[in-house]
User: Which sequence fits this backbone?
């Protein structure tokens, strides 16, 4: 196994995938705790569909998918929040509305232009081969910004996650923090789409948080445990993918799901009353 | 010293006049009970004061030294699971001005004070979700005090609790009011108890029915009518 790991890291694209993936997994797991507890879990799924739509546009326009997707997915994250807060459209319905529209637009664009080529399939289901050096640097920079902001604003993030009413009464600009959470999710989803796949990236946001909530009692421990699980599952998934030639995104997701099921059993055995 | 000044506050929702020309003030250390029948607009008044409702006419202002209010809402996070310890919930009272890793000595002292006064030491590491209803409310009052030891705005904090828990909470609020001159504005449906606790009363039924000292309030027909309704 050690030889296999050493061999794996002899390939520069694997090193790039490993570094990029660790940063994305870390950010997804910590932001995911708040999204899950605020019942915004489906937002990640919705935004990943939007990501696919913008990818299709990028393929048609022959542009870099990352730089086109990033602003568009962030705008959609803003729209999702605004639609669900201000109008009569419910949050889940708003996500369905925007995500399916973006997906349909993407499919339509591809069908009348290039068709479902390999590049498009890679974005749908994930691939580590296409990770450019520039993409890695952009990912490291943006994820570092997210991690620093998260640590600095942790008390405020806890407050808006636990009790928005109290946070608002205390003078906190709750809508700006909600927006910041949505924008950070958009960034993580766009960055992680290449490796994990548009259809699987939301798993990185939701499952580690759900797993951690099975065994942890405090918010801080949930965040830290979720982070540890996410990093472990990513590393294990990448290794399995390399060793058995399985799709990276699907490998990481399945290890996450397996670990979640193990925690469900642990929770049942301990008779805990978490979710 | 006036902590809160409310002038001709009116709130209208879809042509229904919920509050009309409410005027009163709250001084430092004052314990003001907000009473009135169901649907009289008490919660709307409180929601307006904590900026939850922004559609109103008239005005209200807090003393310049009050940057934030300590608020306990009527419906809390009692029912749904949330992974947080009592300590995390109490500290979140600092959320407005707290950036990690900066917590001032004064803030730390206020946290320790309220934990001690409300006898919450044994609950600190317990999951908030696993606490009893009364313990949860005590934690929320502690969080409100951490947010502001000058003014607590409490919307029926004892609702739905057993008599013992209610009594414990009333004692805790009294202690904070007595020892730290914390001004209290509290909605309560327990008329018999609240008139024993509060030094003044604001009675509303969409409009102002009474504002003044408790001993004057209990002599009014408004009080008698409320008591009959209450019984």
Assistant:
């Amino acid at each position: 196994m050690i030889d296999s790991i050493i061999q794996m890291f002899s390939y520069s694209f694997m090193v790039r995938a490993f570094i990029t993936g660790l940063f994305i997994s870390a950010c997804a797991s910590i932001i995911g705790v708040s999204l899950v507890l605020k019942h915004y879990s489906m937002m990640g799924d919705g935004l990943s569909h939007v990501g696919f739509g913008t990818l299709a546009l990028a393929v048609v326009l022959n542009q870099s998918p990352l730089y086109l997707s990033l602003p568009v997915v962030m705008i959609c994250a803003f729209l999702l929040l605004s639609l669900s807060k201000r109008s009569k459209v419910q949050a889940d319905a708003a996500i369905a509305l925007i995500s399916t529209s973006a997906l349909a637009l993407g499919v339509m664009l591809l069908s009348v232009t290039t068709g479902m080529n390999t590049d498009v399939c890679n974005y749908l289901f994930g691939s580590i081969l296409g990770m450019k050096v520039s993409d890695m640097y952009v990912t490291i920079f943006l994820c570092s910004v997210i991690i620093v902001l998260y640590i600095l604003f942790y008390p405020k993030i806890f407050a808006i996650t636990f009790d928005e009413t109290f946070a608002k009464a205390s003078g906190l600009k709750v809508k700006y923090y909600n927006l910041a959470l949505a924008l950070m999710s958009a960034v993580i989803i766009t960055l992680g789409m290449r490796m994990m796949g548009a259809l699987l990236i939301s798993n990185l946001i939701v499952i580690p948080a759900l797993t951690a909530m099975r065994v942890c009692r405090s918010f801080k421990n949930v965040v830290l445990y979720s982070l540890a699980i996410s990093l472990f599952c990513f590393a294990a998934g990448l290794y399995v993918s390399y060793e058995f030639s399985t799709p990276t995104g699907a490998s990481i997701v399945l290890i996450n799901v397996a670990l979640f099921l193990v925690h469900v059993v642990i929770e049942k055995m301990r008779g805990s009353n978490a979710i | 010293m006036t902590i809160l000044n409310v002038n001709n506050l009116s709130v209208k929702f879809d042509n229904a006049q919920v509050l009309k020309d409410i005027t009163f003030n709250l001084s430092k250390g004052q314990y003001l009970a907000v009473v009135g029948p169901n649907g009289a607009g008490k919660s709307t008044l409180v929601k307006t004061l904590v900026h939850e409702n922004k559609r109103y006419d008239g005005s209200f202002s807090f003393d310049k030294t009050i940057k934030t209010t300590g608020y306990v809402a009527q419906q809390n996070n009692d029912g749904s699971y949330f992974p947080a310890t009592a300590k995390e919930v109490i500290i979140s009272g600092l959320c407005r001005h707290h950036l990690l890793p900066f917590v001032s000595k004064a803030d730390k002292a206020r946290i320790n004070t309220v934990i001690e006064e409300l006898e919450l030491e044994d609950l600190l590491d317990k999951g908030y979700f696993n606490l009893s209803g009364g313990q949860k409310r005590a934690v929320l009052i502690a969080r409100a005090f951490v947010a502001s030891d000058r003014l607590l705005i409490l919307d029926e904090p004892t609702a739905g609790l057993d008599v013992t828990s209610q009594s414990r909470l009333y004692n805790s609020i009294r202690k904070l009011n007595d020892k730290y001159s914390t001004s209290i504005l509290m909605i309560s449906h327990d008329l018999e108890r609240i008139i024993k606790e509060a030094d003044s009363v604001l009675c509303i039924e969409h409009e102002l029915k009474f504002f003044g000292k408790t001993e004057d309030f209990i002599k009014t027909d408004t009080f008698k009518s409320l008591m009959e309704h209450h019984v």
Q: What stands out?
A: Chain A touches chain B through 31 residues (CB under 8 Å). The radius of gyration of chain A is 19 Å. The domain at 2-270 of chain A is CATH 1.10.3470.10 (ABC transporter involved in vitamin B12 uptake, BtuC).
